[in-house]
Amino acid sequence: MRQACSGLEDCYKRINGKKLRLGYTTGSCGAAAAKAAAFMLLTGQDIDYVDVTAPGGMLLHLEVLDKRRGGDFVSCAIQKDAGDDPDITDGIFIYAKVYKKKTEKQPMIIITGGAGVGTVTKPGLEQPVGAAAINSTPRKMIVEELERLCERHHYQKGLIVELSVPGGEELAEKTFNPRLGILGGISILGTTGIVEPMSESALLSSIHLEIKQQVSLGRKSLLVTPGNYGQIFLREHFPLCSADVKCSNFVGETIDFAADLGVENLLFAAHIGKFIKVAGGIFQTHSSNADGRMEILTANAVLAGVDQPLLTELMQAVTTEEGIRILEKAGCLQKTMGHVMERLWMHLSRRSFGRINLGAIVFSSELGKRRQGHGELGRTKNAEEILEKILQEIS
After folding, report:
1. CA 294, 300, 306, 307: dihedral to nearest 10 degrees?
2. pTM
């Protein structure tokens, strides 16, 4: 049964007891804009609102903006509404310019990308190299809506749809697209057509795509970092290497994706604040999911023979960086980190179920500043071997 929402103003999802408003994707915007422009082109009439059914079954009733007519086309825009999700594309305009085809040659509906819509330049993504970065679900929505319109109005030659996004090229620099090899603009996306606030699915999909892309290029050994700290560390210490994948807090899911896609070796370069958790068997490292940083660091200091007064001080530290300073000052850092790296390797090995060779290099940003760039805290025993394989593959 379809759920009707007028622009989703009255549709919410409860997360942690809060009512958060749903939004709709760039794909839904593109389909709605294309339908509105096609209707106006085929009928000669103007419309102020257009209805499209999202793949998830929700009926969207969206306002049609910036309507323009040319000699052989109609152009319309739909404004993206991400609801309460912190989506970088919230508020942008997705335009569709629709032309009549000159012949009945198949396919009936042709979809192209204009200014601000990215072009795929590397293999391994959903669309082939050279195609506009308009994913299959939005394409299917557009084709189905426009074919029905053509049939209803007895038009047989078909239509050409050009999607565009003003400012899309600049906006894309703040997304995963440049890393994925999608150049010149944003992607037109959406699996369900609806944006769910605080959803992790989009980020997980991006991680999966990054790994898939590397595999499609023949890579079997990948370098992963949770975020920007890792990128900076790699640039300073391993200038020949840059991270193939950013995994954010999703360490476990990244391992699963890599193993499923046939990656043989995975090396993490991570800040101690993230990966001390992995040394305790925590594979989703966001603070809202689990912490235990000082407990895990202190437990390994116990194994290193650190005295009780120092253990108490360590447990009371607010950050791992502070904990590292305490251990370094007491001359206990190297031995403690030796135990941390052993536990880290053990948990990584357990998590992989033998399907993939996992290793890690862990660093401290503050230690690097104090030691003039030498911030590495430790490596798992197989890290050097994996690093050599990575260097061989990229050379």
Report:
1. 60
2. 0.70
